[in-house]
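[Q] Does anyone have a clean structure-token version of this?
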Amino acid sequence: MAKYILALDQGTTSSRAILFGESGQPVATAQQEFPQIFPRPGWVEHNPLDIWRSQRDVARAVLDQRGVRAAEIAAIGITNQRETTIIWDRRTGEPVYNAIVWQCRRTAAMCDALKAEGYDRVIREKTGLVTDAYFSGTKVAWLLDNVPGVRRRAEAGELAFGTVDTWLLWNLSDGALHVTDVSNASRTLLYNIYTGDWDDDILAKLNIPRALLPEVRPSSEVYGECATHVLGASIPLAGIAGDQQAATFGQVAVKPGMAKNTYGTGSFVLMNTGETGIPSDSGLLTTILWQLGVDQPVIYALEGSIFVTGAAVQWLRDGLGIIQSAGEVESLAAQVDSAEGVYFVPAFVGLGAPSWDPYARGTLIGMTRGTTRAHIARATLDAIALQSYDVLETMRRDGNIELSALRVDGGASQNNLLMQIQADVLGVPVERPAVVETTALGASYLAGLAVGFWSCCDDLEDNWQLERTFEPRMSSAEREALLEGWRRAVERSQGWAQA
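[A] Here you go.
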């Protein structure tokens, strides 16, 4: 009898496999790092075979660790680093080049050229994305234009393109499946999120043959079977979502207005907008969250990326040396009741949404002779919460949707003081779940729904366990004063690199 769902969580620096039981609790985890490749400044690559082998090996390891037979696995779900681009031979499975990672900036000039002729507006209207080297489309074009023989072979139908989910699915199925889901397709710069198909106009503009592209399917569906030699049995391959969409589903943020924030090195904020893809006038991305079956509607989100959140705490440790470990920032910041007018804008690499200023730089302002390292630590936590406020307030305004609560995950979500500050500045409760492995959990939920391991989203709601709620305690006057000071600090950080 099937007792578990196996989630494959393929990330930028490591591959993980997690077994989940019916209650949604993780019962075993295995993880393996793989090499990062930096051919030149601004370029980031992975060996696709390293990705596949590390993911296969941890899948095997997690079963061995728990003593689970493959026959006890009801389904396999996949979640993945988004936008990373791979092209391989359809017959042999051999990659034509390394995977070009989402972080890679090699196609920035190509994106600048598209913007200069105004084509970025077309891309925005069709895909919901900004024209940036972050996304897959220009990476595909680069491979076709720069790797000898690849364009000819692609046009002859000999090659396959995919993001990491597609590459894993291909290998798990022994080459039987060339498939992606709507969430990953929506991150390629090539998929029209409103018509639900690859966009012929954009493909023509980037000179990408349609024959290269995978079939786009719902996020929760049985796509095929895992080849027996991979794990020892034929197991349904049944759920796919990009990592941030999977985390949102793992948080069971399934109703319009529900939002989650993942606090990592940076932060990703996604708000469910339901069956309507809402264009943003403020630099947010309109993206697809998921589709729960062919007869179900596509669900959309607004997404905002914050470049530096947890990295600001790392800077306190590594740059200033005022803490010895990231965990110390909470106790240090708690030594003062407030930052007492000190603001830290951690614009080390510019500002993302809603400011979108690549020339902004980090600013520490408002200090007096009485300022201590505790005030700087408190200002750092304030900055993480205030940047999240800026994105969520922009979402509320663009989407005309009121935020009822914020569900949180990621390493910094374990900082109780930060979560209280976040609730205070937002003026809504912040909810931290008991299960923090929300990305892998979301992939398992999508797979489990497809095979009937869970019957409906109500089951998932029942599984979702609240570890702690942080209720707002700050008065509206205090909140507005804090926000006004923050706005002034952000203004002073902007345009600095141009001076």
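[Q] Thanks! Anything notable?
[A] The first helix runs from residue 48 to 66.
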